[in-house]
Write a structure and sequence with these properties.
The complex is a heterodimer.
Chain A (H helix, E strand, L loop, with lengths): L1 E4 L2 E4 L7 H7 L7 E5 L2 E3 L14 E6 L5
Parallel strand pairs in A: 1-5
Antiparallel strand pairs in A: 1-2, 3-4, 3-5
Chain B lengths: L1 H4 L2 H5 L4 H9 L2 E5 L3 H13 L3 E5 L17 H6 L3 H12 L4 E5 L5 H7 L5 E4 L4 H13 L4 E7 L2 E7 L7 H4 L10 H4 L3 H19 L9 E6 L4 E6 L17 H7 L3 E3 L5 E5 L8 H9 L5 E5 L2 E6 L2 E6 L3 E5 L4 H11 L2
Parallel strand pairs in B: 1-2, 1-4, 2-3, 4-5
Antiparallel strand pairs in B: 5-6, 6-7, 7-8, 9-10, 10-14, 11-12, 12-13, 13-14
Helix pairs in contact in B: 4-11, 8-12
Classes of the chains: A mainly beta, B alpha/beta.
The structure holds zinc ion.
Zinc ion binds next to α9 of chain B.
Chain lengths: ~70, ~350
């Protein structure tokens, strides 16, 4: 399945079905992040219940502390 | 002649104009942190003619700063000049018409309480979330806009917080990340710094000149190396149960008041703060340390530093001590009690 993450195509395995699993796959689970799924901002509690399908567009922004 | 012409090109820019320029001259901006982000912001705002700048930083200039912290020189490294002192000197060479206050302090609750209420705007240029959350709550309490900015590697992120309008940092962050991605572990390139500052200063100019309708309202992030640019409309994240921006409980002002040690981002360093506004007596400490032949001592009017074993210890006049050479708080405390007391 191919989705778009931050403007770039990303091939994800069939085992990845929801946003929470995708975040783990991308190793972002320890970061504090904001996810936009098909132009809707998702609260963290919705990550598990939000399914991913072919062609979905995701924007993922994480907070960093450096400066 | 120089005085009359210096802001001409900026005044030609229609949204600023003569009125906007006058507003900038009457403005006071506080910049918290004068490392990479803070140096760049300060230089842009000084050149733009913001009438008063207050610079706050706890640190002094080191060699590894020179790659990206644009206000500092090799001489500042040799002299271990506090960053705000070096920055003020350079900025006064750039624009003698503005007033610059340099504060060699750690931006804690008390310090920001004393400074932020007088400002029109606070620019975040710190290197840690503890200080950012204090800024967040202080600015909510005193109803001041502040502009979050941060970067690591080739990635940067920024957001303008307007009390009463936008979500605050507490609304947006579900936890304080501790993933080990710091300037120390994954580095930082200068263009990422400059990009964050470009957004921050543009937003600052809009706020200071009264062009609030053109503020982005978005959480903006980018990765320059990966050629990625993200802009998220985050208004829906404003949480009407948020203790910082809705309930007015300001949790980060109480929590932080108890914090005494901090591991510094990008450095193999622990900072230790003493209670309240204790003043360090350099001469006493020096006398004590000079007895130990193994200790190499250095001092200037602002700080005292010495090396022992694998550690380098720097004591500041306001009661703070940096222990370089460890990330372990307990180890740092041991060194502190051994040599500073
Ligand atoms: Zn909030």
């Amino acid at each position: 399945m191919e989705i778009i993450v931050n403007g770039d195509p990303l091939e994800v395995s069939e085992g990845i079905t929801n946003i929470e699993e995708l975040i783990q796959e991308l190793r972002l689970e320890k970061k504090s992040l904001i996810v936009e799924h098909n132009q809707t901002i998702l609260k963290k509690e919705k990550h598990k219940d939000t399914a991913i399908s072919e062609g979905d567009r995701l924007e993922i922004v994480h907070f960093v502390g450096g400066g | 002649m120089l005085v009359n012409n210096r802001y001409h090109r900026q005044m030609l820019f229609d949204p600023i104009g003569e009125t906007g320029q006058k507003r900038l001259q009457e403005s006071h901006v506080v910049i918290v942190g004068v490392g990479a982000l803070g140096s760049s912001s300060a230089e842009m705002l000084a050149r733009a003619g913001v009438g008063t700048l207050t610079l706050i930083d706890r640190d002094y200039v080191e060699e590894t700063n020179l790659q990206r912290q644009q206000l500092f020189s090799e001489e500042d490294v040799r002299m271990q000049t506090p960053k705000v002192i070096a920055a003020k000197k350079r900025l006064e060479e750039i624009n003698h018409l503005i007033t610059i206050y340099a504060e060699v302090i750690d931006a804690g609750v008390d310090e920001l309480e004393a400074i932020a209420p007088e400002a029109n705007l606070v620019i975040d240029a710190t290197d840690n979330f503890d200080t950012r959350l204090i800024i967040n709550d202080i600015c909510q309490k005193h109803h001041k806009p502040w502009i979050y900015g941060a970067c690591v590697a080739s990635y940067g992120v920024t957001f303008t917080v307007l009390p009463g309008e936008t979500p605050c940092l507490h609304c947006m962050m579900d936890h304080i990340p501790s993933d080990g991605a710091t300037c120390d572990s994954v580095g930082i390139i200068s263009p990422a710094v400059q990009m964050v500052v470009s957004y921050q200063v543009t937003e600052a100019l809009k706020i200071l000149t009264g062009n609030l309708d053109t503020l982005s309202g978005k959480l903006i992030a980018f990765d320059l190396w990966k050629n990625q640019q993200m802009e998220l409309q985050v208004a829906s994240l404003k949480d009407d149960t948020c203790p910082s921006c809705s309930k007015k409980q300001y949790p980060h002002l109480t929590y932080q008041a108890q914090l005494k040690t901090a591991v510094l981002c990008g450095r193999n360093t622990v900072q230790i703060r003493t209670n309240g506004k204790k003043v360090m007596h350099f001469e006493e400490i020096k006398k004590h340390l000079e007895r130990n032949q193994q200790i190499k001592l250095f001092s200037n009017p602002y700080l005292l530093s010495f090396e022992i074993d694998k550690y380098r210890v720097v004591v500041f006049g306001d009661g703070r001590t940096l222990i370089h050479g460890t990330k372990n708080v307990q180890e740092a405390k041991k060194v502190y009690y051994q040599y500073v007391g």
